[in-house]
From TrEMBL:
Keywords: ATP-binding, Coenzyme A biosynthesis, Cytoplasm, Magnesium, Nucleotide-binding, Nucleotidyltransferase, Transferase
Top-rank lineage group of the source organism: Bacteria
SUPFAM superfamilies per the UniProt record, alphabetical: Nucleotidylyl transferase
Family: Belongs to the bacterial CoaD family.
GO molecular function: ATP binding; pantetheine-phosphate adenylyltransferase activity
EC number: 2.7.7.3
Protein name: Phosphopantetheine adenylyltransferase
Subunit composition and interactions: Homohexamer.
Binding site for substrate: 9, 41, 73, 87
Organism: Jiangella ureilytica
Summary of the function given for this chain in its UniProt record: Reversibly transfers an adenylyl group from ATP to 4'-phosphopantetheine, yielding dephospho-CoA (dPCoA) and pyrophosphate.
Amino acid sequence: MRRCLCPGSFDPVTNGHLDVIERATSLFDEVVVAVLVNVSKKGLFSVDERIDMLEKTCAHLPEVRIVSFEGLLVDFARQRGISAVVKGLRAVSDFDYELQMAQMNHRMTGLETLFVATNPDYSFLSSSLVKEVASHGGDVAGLVPDVVLQRLHERLGRR
């Protein structure tokens, strides 16, 4: 069985994330969406809330599993026998950072990284930008799944 990881903080999951996850399902038999637990960083949504939104968002994808992890991605992958990571790239700045990470991961354990060019419709999109726009009452409909839009409205209020 060909398995991969799609790691991230997903705070919150965007349509750009979903696009990468869906495309990974066409390449792998199982896609493990790994939600990073970073205790030193306070997110808008708890890890459990992010997992719940991802589960609802990915319910139409039977080959997707949603889990959380702490620590190094290479350790998480090794413990689960997963040898590949799929990452979306929006811009050259993403590539610079992600290439360094991919090379370090490969050096440490042989973990391979596959880069997927982001759909141009979402090339500007990030969770941080979604949160910023939504917190000021801006419309992020069409940029996040409906369940996320609803949760953003509940958390930040509609303006």
